[in-house]
Amino acid sequence: MRATGDPGCRPGWHTDELSLGTPRAALRSLVTPVAVAGGLTELAWVGAHALLYPLGTRKEPLRLDPRCRPGEQPPSVRALFAADPLAARIPVLLVHGLIDNRSIFTVMRRGLRRRGFAQVCTWNYSPLLGDVAEGARDLGEHVERICAQTGHDRVHLVGHSLGGLISRHYVQRQGGGRRVESLVTLGTPHGGSVLAHLLPTPMVRQLRPGSALLQELAEPAPDWSTPTTAVYSNLDQLVVPTRLGRCDHPDLRARNVLVRGVGHMSLPFHRGVVDEVAATLAGLRPAAHASLVSAA
């Protein structure tokens, strides 16, 4: 894994269409040193995640740490919340992807807590879930429980893969905007994935480009007001083509963050992605514009 200080792997965000050029150029992009290193890192994280997976099957109780506040953190952490010190206290809910569990967020959960977020929790939904809308309803019930336990009326949502689509459906189609302070998706197939044609299960069919679910999410959303960030990678092996990981709905006005050389399963583990999520939740990233913007 390359250091986040390396400009070559620092996330850059833009709202224009990602162009891969000719098919030959796209193929060459897969054999660059960055792509090869990213592929090897992906294999390593997949192996580590397989070992952690059994531990993630247990339900995690919501643990509140009253000592974890910006004023008691190092200056580098306090700087995250200089503009809005209450941001650290808003609960962060991490939502995993298809046939996965909360263990995918082992590194990100620890990283967010070390960066000053006091209440970071996860949620396991059934691996047999067959409908995104059903998952979104269950997510809404869990958000209500978190709000009741913490006394907060809003949460941050961070969803990986299918978890991002469930979170978006909750906010966009089920009135979740009143509870969600901000939404961040990681490797989420906002436009579907052609690989979804390989499996005929009801859930996977919903992830096919042009499916009824994706057509529903493409409908106008004039009341949308939730700040949204979609992190996607040019090395995503499950969201194909990778540009479908962008969220280009005109009413959502999402920031699309391109991370180079990071595989689908590596996104929640990658330090640069964790840094980007932390800065986004702390309100340190600008709103999206209609033109190309270089990385800060």
From TrEMBL:
Q: Known Pfam families for this protein?
A: Abhydrolase_1
The AB hydrolase-1 domain covers: 91-193
Which chain positions lie within coiled-coil regions? none
Q: Which SUPFAM superfamilies match?
A: alpha/beta-Hydrolases
UniProtKB keywords: Hydrolase
| Domain of life of the source | Bacteria
- Per its record, what are the GO molecular function terms? hydrolase activity
Protein name, entry field: Alpha/beta fold hydrolase
* Organism expressing this protein natively: Geodermatophilus normandii
